[in-house]
Amino acid sequence: MARRWKPTPFLAGSATLHGVAALGVLAQPALWPWAAGAVAANHALITAAGLWPRSQALGPNITRLPRVPAGVAGRVALTIDDGPDPEVTPRVLDLLAEHGIKASFFLIGHRAERYPALCRAIAQQGHRVENHGYSHSHALSLFGPARLAMDIARAQAVLQDASGQAPRFFRPTAGLRNLFLEPVLARQGLQLASWTRRGYDTREPRPDRVLQRLTRALGDGDILLLHDGHAARAGDGRPVIEHLIPRLAQRLDQAGLTTTTLHDALA
Predict the structure, then answer these.
(1) 136, 227, 243, 263: which one is catalytic?
(2) Distances from the Cα of 92 to the Cα of 29, 87, 115, 127, 133, angstroms
(3) Any residues with CB less than 8 A from the CB of 240 and at least 6 apart, and which?
(4) Is 81 a catalytic residue?
(5) Is the pLDDT of residue 73 over 90?
């Protein structure tokens, strides 16, 4: 269901700056170098906000779960990106089931289209399917509003058809975005979700290093990011995520934390 889009104070201020700059130049043409400089600096800030995955400047961005009440076991959300992968995802599902972990899978549309049975398996095993775009283009943050809307809507349709679940959350490629994304998500009824901590497991082959990054000061409300697609390979040739799930389960148990999906935590 579509939701109302409201520009952030940062974007509202940016629009005001552009208007003031234009009026200033009309009133005093000699001011144009100063006006152009101010506008250019503002555009640089907008770009920087889009390059910071956890930024709230361009719109609402879920970076952690709500805190649970006192006396209730803390919880974290495990999110797994870039699948489904025909080799890795089935083994990941087996490991999650073995250790009683629930996860949110941010799936790539064109991969889901190719492997719909894996999407169904994810949903049937109690996990949630979320939207990671159709193309997973590394230029996604350069897309205009029409192309963004088409890419996200195509993934939404593919994922819902394949899994029987309607994704509620969207995560852009590498977390990079632009000022057009939030209005598109609002129209499509999706929410941007990033993470609290990531292990860089697409390029770090040492599971211990990835685990350390994920679990340092791990606590209630954290959103963790791993990958079943594009996963780095450990020294034995296995994807890093396969080494991590049992170790992560042990750390969670030691910390008295449970796992939940973004859907369940934020319903």
Answers:
(1) 227
(2) 63, 9, 15, 12, 21
(3) 199, 201, 204, 205, 206, 207, 210, 231, 232, 233, 234
(4) yes
(5) no
Pairwise CA distance, residues 162 & 135, whole Å: 17
Q: Active-site residue 227, yes or no?
A: yes
pTM for the whole structure: 0.94
Q: Which residues, in sequence order, are bridge partners of residue 192?
A: 170
What does the pLDDT read at residue 40?
A: 85
Mean pLDDT, the chain, rounded, equals: 93
CA distance linking residue 115 with residue 120, whole number of Å = 9
Catalytic residue among 81, 85, 151, 201: 81
Pairing of strands 103-107, 197-198: unpaired
Q: Which of 57, 110, 101 is nearest to 79 (CA)?
A: 101
When pLDDT is averaged across residues 86-103 and rounded to a whole number, the result is: 98
β partners of residue 104: 79, 128
How many whole angstroms separate alpha carbon 104 and alpha carbon 130?
A: 7
Interval 12-71: pLDDT, tens: 888 786 777 777 767 877 766 766 777 688 878 888 888 899 999 999 999 999 988 877
